[in-house]
Hints:
This protein is mostly helical. Helices cover 80% and strands 0% of the residues.
Amino acid sequence: YVLGFVAKKPLPGSLLLAWLAALLGYGVLHGTGDLSLADEAKATAAGLLLNLLLGVPLFGRTLLVTLLSDRNEILARNIRAECERLQSEGRSNQACIVVLGLAHCNGVKRLLCEEK
Length: 116
């Protein structure tokens, strides 16, 4: 998913990869060293701040862009196919009921309204 995000959105994706590399690099370089209690507290606070300011928004964006948008396209395609199947069988007066999670409602609605 991270590489898919990098392909779709190069700048935020590159920031996400840099953030992951920094976390891994810091853990490898400083994870085994002998730190004083004060240094450990500073490192923990800095890591927490880095995660809150950079990591959470980027991972949240990754999930929204790659998971939701891709899934919305699949859901909209399947809903449209089911409606077309009902219409081709002469049952166009029947409703096609769809239950979606809140995160998918607007995206699927937009795709179904656009693709006419």
